[in-house]
Amino acid sequence: MNMTRLAQLPLFAGLSEDAQRAIGTAVTEQSFEAGRVVVREGDFAERLTIIDEGTVRVERDGIELAQLGPGATFGEQGVIEKAQRNASVIAHTDVRLMHLEGFDLKRIGHAHPELLERVEQIVAERH
After folding, report:
1. Number of independent structural domains in the chain
2. Any idea where the Cyclic nucleotide-binding domain is (predicted)?
3. CATH number of 31's domain
4. Does the pLDDT value for residue 45 go beyond 90?
5. Can you give the chain as a three-state secondary structure string?
6. Would you place residue 14 in the very low, low, confident or very high pLDDT band (cuts 50, 70, 90)?
7. Are 123 and 81 in contact (CB under 8 A)?
C-alpha cells in the first residue's frame, strides 16, 4: 500500500501515523474495468470501499443516483449499521478501489476512534 497516497485520501488525511499504518496493513486493493458491477443492491455490506482512481455510478432499481470519484466512499452505512446495500455500484471508468473490512474498521477504530467518527459522519450526512 502506498502510504503517501493513503494519507492523501480525505477519509484518512490527518490521522496519526499509527492509525495510517494500521489502515495500510489492513486495506486491500482491487481493480474493475468500466461497466463491471462492483457491488449489488441488496447484498450485505461487509466492507468500506474508498475510490482511489476512476469513477463509479451509484444506481438503485436501475436509476442513476450519483457518480463518485477519487476519495469518495461507499459501503459505510452497511458496515456501521450491519445493513444490506441500498444501491448497486458500477464502474463508470476503469477504477482502482481500496477496501477496509468491517472487522478491521472496527478494530482500528477502537484504537483510533477518530476513524470511526469520520465514517459515522459520512453515514449521518447521507441519511
Report:
1. 1
2. 11-126
3. 2.60.120.10
4. no
5. CCHHHHHHCCCCCCCCHHHHHHHHHHCEEEEECCCCEEECCCCECCEEEEEEECCEEEEECCEEEEEECCCCEECHHHHHHCCECCCEEEECCCEEEEEEEHHHHHHHHHHCHHHHHHHHHHHHHHC
6. very high
7. yes
What confidence tens digit (pLDDT) does each residue in 91-116 have? 999 999 999 999 999 999 999 999 99
For the cut 80, the answer to whether the pLDDT of residue 49 exceeds it is: yes
Containing structural domain, residue 81: 3-126
Between the CA of residue 14 and those of 6, 10, 54, 101, what are the distances in Å? 11, 8, 23, 21
Note whether 89 and 38 are within 8 A (CB): yes
Does the pTM surpass 0.85? The reply is: yes
Cβ atoms of 96 and 54 closer than 8 Å: yes
Euclidean distance between CA atoms 9 and 13, whole angstroms: 6
Which of 19, 18, 25 is CA-nearest to residue 1? Answer: 25
Sheet holding 56-60, edge to edge: 37-39, 88-91, 56-60, 63-68
